[in-house]
Amino acid sequence: MLNFTFHNPTRILFGSGRIADLAREIPAGARVLITRGGSSVERNGTLAEVRQALAGFTVFDFAGIEPNPTCETLLQAVELARRERVDFLLAVGGGSVIDGTKFIAAAIPFEGDPWTILSERAPVRQAVPFGCVLTLPATGSEMNNGAVITRRATQDKLAFSSRLLFPRFSVLDPAKTRSLPPRQVANGIVDAFVHTTEQYLTYPVDAKVQDRIAEGLLLTLIEDGPKTLSDPEDHNARANLMWTATLALNGLIGAGVPQDWATHMLGHELTALHGLDHAQTLAIVLPALLQERRTQKREKLLQYAMRVWNLRDGGEEQRIDEAIARTRAFFESLGVPTRLSDHGIGADAIPVLLAGLERHGMTALGERRDLGLDCARRIYERAC
Amino acid sequence: MLNFTFHNPTRILFGSGRIADLAREIPAGARVLITRGGSSVERNGTLAEVRQALAGFTVFDFAGIEPNPTCETLLQAVELARRERVDFLLAVGGGSVIDGTKFIAAAIPFEGDPWTILSERAPVRQAVPFGCVLTLPATGSEMNNGAVITRRATQDKLAFSSRLLFPRFSVLDPAKTRSLPPRQVANGIVDAFVHTTEQYLTYPVDAKVQDRIAEGLLLTLIEDGPKTLSDPEDHNARANLMWTATLALNGLIGAGVPQDWATHMLGHELTALHGLDHAQTLAIVLPALLQERRTQKREKLLQYAMRVWNLRDGGEEQRIDEAIARTRAFFESLGVPTRLSDHGIGADAIPVLLAGLERHGMTALGERRDLGLDCARRIYERAC
Fold first, then answer.
1. What is the 3-state secondary structure (H, E, C) of A177-240?
2. One CATH from 3.40.50.11810, 3.40.50.720, 3.30.420.40, 1.20.1090.10 for B182-382
């Protein structure tokens, strides 16, 4: 096992009816800004439930945070928050809303251009405290301190994190995910799956607990992901999916092990340039990347084949092939395509994707920092 | 899955050489009281390493916290801390030292008799902050907010917890456990094993991730526990054992599931009345309890048989018998006996043990609160 530091102070309020408990988590007298996306939380009643729980606080509302939240939109919320002297933020939504809220929290007290927090890694010295009401199990943002923000003007999609940006609390009520459209549920399953593989399918360091937790998350996604899609009333499956997605990126399975994240980096370029959903890009890149990196990831791929897909027969190469094929088939079974061509993207798009990677400094990726642009090209080619 | 709240703000510094980092975790200018047990941390160099890391702080030292720490001893540390205006505690040791330090932390600012925190559940309204340097993987106290304290005068052994009693940080350096005697290593393995079963071997609530994490902890203990005993230089096994013991009782596997803890309560009486090591009592009670409660725990015992002991053949009763037998054999293989008679305790001791349970209000134990004194008697009888 590698040395690690683990710290995650976010309080999780999990289960039915927990929105009612959030007022106790917010300082008395706070001026609260609700941050959210579109109107779905209005339609399904979640926003009304949140507003009821916030009776007694001064509440403002900022709607319109988009999927792949943009700096341009978020700065409007920053302006509102500064004008109204907001001192607590409450994100009501999925990963995009929560990621966006982290940027807002850091930007409100920031002097200068807040985009430099991402573009120049300007340090976050203060942040407005915030909580979350999660409506979409997927990104894990509700229990970590990282975020990915896009700048529309330049098509840049960049990540940042800060020890000041853990949510104070997150409410995870599985019932609040019942009205999600299937596409978002499926995307969430893929997202949590690939968060797990980025921290698991690398090279072995004999970190037995981390490996087994990762395998437990993958098995749960494989078992209960499809159940959630086929029967929206299956509360248990929905609850397991929600907690799994949170644990997939709260630091636990990544503690003391190598991490990859190349699938994400190659995927970000697809979102920035072609507008694909984040999870759609992961479903395309991962199977191609595992094939291309099967030598470097050999031992963990064999472990994955055995423990996650129960593949015990046949030679080693065959088991690796089969494990990758099962991964692809799993994504396809959720209705998430795994080829660039499924989105009308051809090989001619690859040079521009590579130029994007280069421009963003993504030229030494992977758990050993040996995945360069040549290798990235071969992965995109395999994904065609 | 049941509703739950999960919150664990302890920062973990894991790995070789991490003691050097602890100064950054303590407020500048703090007056630090080191709390510890016997002289082993002096002999193996850990105390010297801690003192070196604390250069620049005003440091006091309190040695002599015993296994099953007593209120009588701990109040001496409270007196010292009050006199010297100590404002940070640093526990250097295993679970007993850390548990004791939690009591000291709560007792220093407490008005009145601190024992009432346990005996009358007097609320803890303040606590002196503290950190830990763990030298014995076992109890999980380094990443939770609970403690068990004994009062020598009355032979009472009682538990308490408070949201103010999470360690600010804990240093987990596996190398610092290398000089432990085999008996303490073996006890630690049993302790972590039974912490896990208390939260896992109950009744199913379809909490798939919690179950799989629990199974991952048990499998790791079964694999790497014996390795740690047979080869003290196996750093990887030692590291896995240390992180496993922490995760076995940090709230994660108990979130959203029923919990038992009857093995602990029946064991506490054995320690209080016969002076057995805590883990020795667990190794005696658990196999007997699982036999006695096999009907109530049937579904989880079958899952345990399959996923932990890989028992797939034979009828259900047979698999349950075999899983319990394997559990007993595992404890015995570590050198921890599983019968009262191994300690020279006969059936004649049982009435006094039952009277102790009754006096401590332990008359409705187990995950369904249906384990009364009659059932406790049958468990002690099976353990003879």
1. HCCCCHHHHHHHHHHHHHHHHHHHCCCCCCCHHHHHHHHHHHHHHHHHHHHHHHCCCCHHHHHH
2. 1.20.1090.10
